[in-house]
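Example (one chain per record):
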Amino acid sequence: MLVKPCYNIDIGGDFLKERVNRLYELRKSRNLTQLSLSIQLNLSLSRISAYENGENIPCDVLMIFAEFYGVSIDYILYFSDIKSSETNIMESEQKLLDFYRKLSLDSKALIDCMVNGYSPQKMNDD
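Predicted structure:
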């Protein structure tokens, strides 16, 4: 099944180069290789390379990139220079967020419970 690109914009090469640069710059800003990014996002290395070289990006993949990097889709596509609507966070908070994003679903659920004041024992008692 062919997935349609989120944005089908044909406005020339400059737009394409800028979008490519954003994905590349975001990856480099985290000191990631294409291989490590492909593993973390569960995307093939060839897909990461293709997106960084200007291939159309499906909506679901754009959302994955935006969530992973903590930026808006508009920022990735160069429609905005504002990275996100979130307020600036300290470097230590960003490290915690990055660590959390790498956790398994079970580990995230446990952390969510702790943050919300629930313990696994309390949840089982209900």
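Caption: Residues 1-5, 7-12 have pLDDT under 50 and may be disordered.
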